[in-house]
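Chapter summary example.
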Amino acid sequence: MTQSPEFPPEILDYYVRGREDGRLRTGRGRLEFWRTRDVLRRVLPPAPAQLMDVGGGSGVHAEWLAADGYDVELIDPVPMHVEQASRLAGVTAREGDARALEAADASADAVLLLGPLYHLTDRTDRVRALAEARRVVRPGGVIAAATISRWAAVHDMVRSGRYAEEPVRHVVDDSARHGLLRGNERIGFTTAYFHDPDEILGEFADAGLPGARRYALEGVFGLYADVEEWLDDPERRELLLRVARRSEGEPTLLGVAGHMLTVAHT
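The structure predicted for these 266 residues follows.
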């Protein structure tokens, strides 16, 4: 096994604050959570199967995957996340890095990268993480990776009203041009890479994963001011999730969604 590369300390510092777990369980973040679950339930091999949740954080997705009957191993570079995830029924958790997985070749039925590509700002590292996932997955298995869309920070800051602040506008406009967000407290996020919807296909292909399929998660609906009201109402929520599924592969809408899931079969 190769030695795990270093991870930027400012990213680790951000995640030890514990914000990510609650982000997906409350408010508008639920749309991303439910849409991710919807797509994964359609593309993953049936349970019981061995899943590796790389960069799985505190186990927000590992929890429901284990409840669905999967054998889930969660890998994360943040010790606090590993401790939290290890308390979940049916989940084993340990520290590790997506670019250097301590796992045997062809040892998992699926590998999820639902966070690592956000913070690997160098393309070589992103391709390396995808190649590691391919190495670990058995023939016929699934690799699913989440990305943040190129204009996501601009959209978020306009919605919150902070885009009117010149320092904020400068940072997020730069991220829309080049993909790199230099996070700070004013933005409310840490250093990250935001993908153009087409470039992820090239990264998958360079990792030996051609023919990947993209799924827009929130679609345009995550931008709506009243999306939380839709999510709070079971009937309206079902309508919203249904139309988000119908439009998830529409090429003209891929880059509007805050997050995208890309899936390949080995």
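To summarize the output: Strands lie at 50-54, 71-76, 91-95, 108-113, 137-149, 180-181, 192-195, 213-216, 259-265.
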